[in-house]
Amino acid sequence: MKYLHACFLRKRNMLIVRSFTTLLLLSCIAFKLACCFSSSISSLKALPLLGHLEFEDVHPASKDFGNRYQLLPLAVLHPKSVSDIASVIRHIWMMGPHSQLTVAARGRGHSLQGQAQTRHGIVIHMESLQPQKLQVHGTGGPTPFVDVSGGELWINILHETLKYGLAPKSWTDYLHLTVGGTLSNAGISGQAFRHGPQISNVHQLEVVTGKGEILNCSERQNSDLFHGVLGGLGQFGIITRARIALEPAPTMVKWMRVLYLDFAAFARDQERLISSDDDKFDYIEGFVIINRTGLLDSWRLSFTPEDPIEASKFKSDGRNLYCLEVAKYFKLDQDKKDVMNQVRSERIIV
Asked: What family is it from (predicted)?
């Protein structure tokens, strides 16, 4: 019995020692992290910046459109210049991996998987970049383009280029997004079948690399960086400026929707349209409608009053529908508008 009791005491003492060692180790790690963060904050605050680093009001930068992740950053950089971004990234690079600081660029926060967030790192608020005048070039030539900031919104680019009768070749459906944000993903919409996504319509980029270097890149200059950054989800550099290809903007657009109940017919028609050699349409996009809230009721306005039979086919009965949205562009004089009406607007259910 005495032997068993001694063994029990010895095991209990060993367990206590191990527990104490574990707690001591965790305390040391926590203390070290606290010291690192304290040192990081002090050194970051000492950086000479035109903009500023925000260490208090950082909660808005811990969310995005996907609403799946909430990663609280150490600070948010509000840059006034590209050199601000380069200075912060260069400083973090020189601190080395022991700082454990990471960086994420954030535009309008429309990422789905937390790409615009970073836990205990630095979020760069790209819209804080000092606004620069959009520069449209080659308006009378065959290859016009516009130079824009990475924090510029596509809607602003559209408004400015339309003054010259021009527009970017490829869009996203929602235009209140930053240039750097969509070019870091792909930028896909209904024009992609003809011109490719937005990343296929870029001539040149200005990029801040992971070492804090400011580099220009294109197909011919730093091409590896150029192709890595485009669609690279911000992992190969931060886009601070882009040269975007333009084309003559249409003066009028004929817009149509076709609804399907059968997915096979929907997919077959979409593939046939996008693979066609003719120029019947300039915009083709397909999507699914989960009709649970009477969404289609608002689509009755798509019909003219002379189409009561077609309008009556819109039944909000909870069925999933498939929609092809297509558009034809026209460059017409005022007295030739009747030509556009020869393209009949079909809104049918197949």
From this structure: Belongs to the oxygen-dependent FAD-linked oxidoreductase family.
Characterize the bridge pairing of strands 166-168 and 135-137: unpaired
Residue 306 falls inside a structural domain:
yes
Q: Does residue 257 sit in the same domain as residue 331?
A: yes
CA distances in angstroms from 247 to 130, 163, 223, 250, listed in the order given: 27, 13, 24, 9
Query: Which helix (H) or strand (E) element contains residue 307?
Result: none
* Same-domain pairing of 56 and 85: yes
DSSP string for 134-152:
-EEE-TTSSS-EEEEETT-
- 117-132 pLDDT tens trace: 899 999 999 999 877 7
Instruction: Report the pLDDT value the prediction gives residue 23, as an integer from 0 to 100.
Output: 55
Q: Which residues pair with 242 in a beta bridge?
A: 148, 205
The pLDDT of residue 294 is 55
Q: Clarify whether residues 330 and 257 are in a common domain.
A: yes
pLDDT tens, residue by residue, 35-53: 555 567 778 888 888 999 9
DSSP letter string over 184-197? TT----TTHHHH--
Residues with catalytic roles: 110, 173, 285
Give me the CATH number covering residue 212.
Answer: 3.30.465.10
Helix (H) or strand (E) holding 100: none
Q: Is residue 27 part of a domain?
A: no
Low-confidence spans in the chain with pLDDT less than 70: 1-39, 291-318, 333-350
Specify if 326 maps to a domain.
Answer: yes
Q: What is the pLDDT of residues 224-274, one digit of tens each?
A: 999 999 999 888 999 999 999 999 999 888 888 888 888 999 999 999 998
CB 325 within 8 A of CB 287: yes
**Domain of residue 73, residue span:** 45-128
Q: Residue 98 gets which letter from DSSP?
A: G
